[in-house]
Amino acid sequence: MFLHYLKTALRSLQRNKFYSVLSIVGFAVGFAVCIIIGLYAYSEFTVDTGFKDHGRIYRVLDTKSNFIWGESKETMSAVMDFNFGKTLKDNYPEIEAIAPYKIIDLEEKSIITEGNVYKIRNHITTSNEMFDLLSLNVLSQEGEKPFVSNNSVVLTESLAERIFGNENPLGKPVVFAWFKDFDLKVSAIVEDMPPDNSFNDIDFFLNSDGQLLGEMSNHGVSIKPANFYLKLKEGVNPGQFIEKVNRTLPGLHKIHQEIALQKISDIYMHSDNIKDSCNAKGNPKLIYLFISVAGLILILSLINFINYSIAQHQAQIKNIGIRKTNGAALQNIFRYFMSESFVGITIATVTSLSIVALLIPFSNQLLNKEFGISLLFQPIPFSLFIAAFAIIVLLNTILPQVGLLKFDLARYLKGGYYNKGKTHTAGVLSILQFSIAIALFVSLVFINKQIKFAKNYNLGFQKENILYISLGENSKLGTTLKSEVNRLPFVKKSTLSNGTLGTVGVRAGVSSQSKHIEKERIIHDILFADYDFFETYGIEIDQKWTKTNEIKDRMCFVNETAVREHSWESIDNKRFDGFKGGYDITGVVKDFKFSTAHTLTKPTSVIFDERIFETPENFYLSIRLSDGILSDQIAQLKKIWGTVITDRPMELTFLDEQLNAMYAKDGQLGKAISSFSIVAFILVMLGILGQVFQICVNKTKEIGIRKVNGATLLNIFKIINYRFVTWVLTAFIIASPIAYKLMQKWLGNFAYKTTLDWWVFALAGVGAFVFVLTIVTLQSWNTARQNPVEALRHE
What we know:
- This protein is α+β, with helices and mostly antiparallel strands.
- The protein has 22 helices and 28 strands.
- Strands 1, 3, 4, 5, 6, 7, 8, 9, 10, 11, 12, 15 and 16 form a 13-stranded mixed beta sheet that branches.
- Helix 2 crosses helix 9 (330-367) and helix 13 (478-485) packs antiparallel against helix 16.
- The protein is globular, with a radius of gyration of 34 Å.
């Protein structure tokens, strides 16, 4: 019986090859895109699960400390005191291993060995326990542990091969390009970390016992900041462990009074409310958006296929009548159509897997993520895939069968009409399809409109023709370098500062203080610079607020946002406390942003103090160029650099390129949504083509009769087009408010956003109307032009 149903189903597919291919290919493309997005989402949600025993590995969080830098006391922080790890290890035997770590994201990531400079990705400052905690296989080492001394470094296998080739790297000297006074030696080689991890592409390990972790101060408390991973012993209940720690911790440590544990598998996607400067963070909102788009595309694909099945059932209604006349029960007819659905969906699924295999390289590039089709055969993705396949087969079988329950065989054989329920079902599905397409189009326009708006947003400074150079440990030579650079004829202006686009030097609390009153302290972004900073960046000084006395050795300018936050009516007698005795506030500058449109402009202080350039802090030399041949200008800058700083190459960054890099993720979102929307529009087009084709086939005889009775082409167009026009108008009414709410919510991620213009919705409606009307008219034209005699011979 199964083989009989199978053969019948294949014959049914072959009977109308064009419509069958159209439906199967359309569903295959949509299902393929859905699978790709699903694999991407799964790879994002399973970051850090490649480590052995990841279920027992946690990050330590501070939940009740006064030392939460620049945040409210209710916010959790992963920034801990370096000595806290020893407190936990010595007092709680439930801990199998605990290790500090600190990832330093430096402007220049280079090391020097044997006279050659090599780029590295990132480095982590940690201890020997980290290698055991993460179960990283040590491939070779000098001593019993990977770190044998305070100046030991450990390299990953891939970095060691890139630098040393086939040579033995153990014992080789290594020097940081930005910190040459510290001699290091390679003491071990470990295997590369699992590909999906939140450690920011670590390939270089430093010993935390010997490295300068630096100090942070807040509310009179100083610490050496570090994050901590710990692994609990097998069988330890994490909830009971935390309860024990928080009950006994106050008597053991002065700073950290209450802690929490965060699973290592949760760090990447669930750290929005955690103060964390080390781990990479995912974007769950973006993932859920992609999943929603995948669901919509799958719905569009399924609608097309269900409409195809409904049309097939209508075409086979006479066959169904004969079967019922000959005694076929409803379950027999149901099995027949289920076999037909199973065959069609199976062919489409196999085709979709082939499309996935072809599109994976492009998808990796589009989504900026490495994953393969082999991920589909992991237990969870494979189970979801099988479940989706089964549900699709059932839906594609059951929905077209609804009309069969009310099918009046006697009436049909007497010349009555087939139940209209199937037509109504197809109409509802088509309205849903058009609604999704219109909502996607509106979303696509607004997403790209916002990205363009953000990139062209007035930052309050001039970004064109500016480049900057990180001075690193050579900051004390910055004044000399600036003097030499300014002699070049194409250099308009240059400035030294401890921050640039996307990089703010310091954050600190500033009190709104006068002679008699002190108000609540407000967190400021602090930029130390020289007097040419404003002119180089084209930042406008508000003369109405600025004191007219001569420039002093030490001054402090604040931006307009700071004035509003402090509720100042004037800057007389206002001071910036701290940092070498404090500074009188000299003036106010127009707001400028060194961050993206995602965040509001923050209160900012720009401090001019020549003494700051005597400190070892990393500074940048920003240079404004005049128009000219860029390659020649860079060559001359490198020549000047080589005469002042002889032991390291010059590496420069263009400000506008850095700005584009800051919006890279938003650009990725725009490209991805655009690509997925194109797929959705193709699916809608295929669905319309299929429906029009089938309607024209079903109405061939009716059209022939109408033409014989004098109907014009316009009359025939009205008959076929009417239902589609009604569907599009209904879909527009449904989709517009939904798209408006969705975009309103998405734009909430931006502090500065574009407007939700009415014309975008109007364009979507008119575009959908013209698009559908064009396809329907072209297809119905072919049917209407046929000879009425041939039409009357139909069936």
